[in-house]
Design a protein that fits this description.
homodimer; 121 residues; mainly alpha; three-stranded antiparallel beta sheet; 6 helices; elongated; DNA-binding
Chain lengths: 121, 121
DNA sequence: TGAATATATGAACAAATGCTCATATATTCG
DNA sequence: CGAATATATGAGCATTTGTTCATATATTCA
């Protein structure tokens, strides 16, 4: 069966339509879901996870992060820009170098929750 | 300056080497970081976020999720497989239909933490 | 000011990702 | 059993993503 949106719908029981409507109505607005997904994307890459773990230990300059992760300065710089745009980290200039650090304790909290899930598998 | 790994290293102060070593040593093992990133990838897509929100409201069959999100049954089924492989959801068969539901309350907790971060921007 | 150093960035490219389409599998019911 | 229905899945394709390479910008210091 095809509904008014041109989407297939299970046509066995009437209750399904109620359920579908309810879920549709309770769904958060598109832009909120987009922002949430964008935030999680930051954590969805091992390089960025490593950077966040590194900054969890200490404020660091780009070059040292690159050294610690055995990666290119360019690669790290690109990733730092992405992480910073999500406001998970902040930076301050100190002469020639720029020091990055975690913006707040959300990073640790979010990672902690995820770890908990993984540990229970 | 180039270090023993062939990676550029800041060569201004000796303390940087200590910091780099410390961060290297305190970094979690590669496979743990991989698992964490893989888990966060699940949340890093609006379709999967919508599915999780839908299942947060109620146990649902594939077809109804598709209807609620105005998406193809195939697209939803593909995504459900990905989410299930991360053990965030479980399924049970009921006749012809298969009902999906959240595996535990980690989903809500993790999303909650992220929401908190976004609200404080 | 000009050389050296730290960081940022744009283009290019390979790999990963998400959707569609067609089709396979599994279950129910006549 | 065979038709109908719900779900799963493989191939193909367009988009996104992460890295590299070359180079630009910014700051220090002689």
């Amino acid at each position: 069966m095809i509904d008014k949106h041109g989407i297939e719908v299970c046509d066995t029981q009437e209750t399904h339509f109620d359920k579908v409507s309810f879920v549709r109505d309770s769904m958060p607005p598109e832009d909120e879901l987009f922002d949430l997904a964008e935030l999680f994307k930051i954590f969805g890459d091992t390089t960025r996870m490593k950077i966040l773990y590194a900054l969890f230990e200490s404020e660091m300059c780009v070059c040292d992060i690159a050294a610690a992760l055995d990666m290119t300065q360019s690669a790290i710089s690109h990733q730092l820009r992405i992480i910073k745009s999500a406001r998970l980290i902040k930076s301050r200039r100190l002469g020639r170098t720029i020091l990055y650090s975690l913006a707040d304790d959300h990073v640790a909290t979010i990672i902690g929750m995820a770890k908990e899930h993984l540990e229970e598998l």
